[in-house]
Amino acid sequence: xxxxxxxxxxxxxxxxxxxxxxxxxxxxxxxxxxxxxxxxxxxxxxxxxxxxxxxxxxxxxxxxxxxxxxxxxxxxxxxxxxxxxxxxxxxxxxxxxxxxxxxxxxxxxxxxxxxxxxxxxxxxxxxxxxxxxxxxxxxxxxxxxxxxxxxxxxxxxxxxxxxxxxxxxxxxxxxxxxxxxxxxxxxxxxxxxxxxxxxxxxxxxxxxxxxx
Length: 212
Description:
Blueprint: E1 7-11, H1 14-25, E2 28-31, E3 37-39, E4 44-49, E5 54-59, H2 63-70, E6 76-78, E7 83-84, E8 88-95, E9 99-106, E10 123-124, H3 128-136, H4 141-161, E11 166-167, H5 169-179, H6 185-194, H7 206-209
Parallel strand pairs: 1-4, 5-9, 10-11
Antiparallel strand pairs: 2-3, 3-4, 6-8, 7-8, 8-9
């Protein structure tokens, strides 16, 4: 088995590029002989002299703020405005030390206002799938994929346990209640009501008052 340990980055001035990476992007010089080796803990780079432009892609959490911060450094120039693609935002910057930075900000389902499909195995009655997709948007993004999977599994288990092959409203709403921590029940209650669900059938105010 092989493991990738470092990428080679061409630069017309490896020394200046190394200084830029250390001073601006938080890299550390690990060795200089025979070829400079730098690392930021997740990416290792060897700098070699060459005329091929050095290009480094950086993933950002806030591309607007990160771009403005980088542009405060001397000799940093904006090559493009921020461009929106289907799944990410992108902007190119250039530094006079001979390196182009490609800033990337992945777009979440919320950024795209998307309703992701549910991994269903049974038929779901009426508009339940769409209602469930909207209710799921009240789940924090970091936990949503797991919640999506767990909710579908529980709803369909409840349906089959009752001897049916179709997920009905009470199966889906009970599944939501089971997978949602009590301190988030009020948010769930409001999300159900927003989708025209009689939330009082599935949640009691005490369930979140006692959790706070």
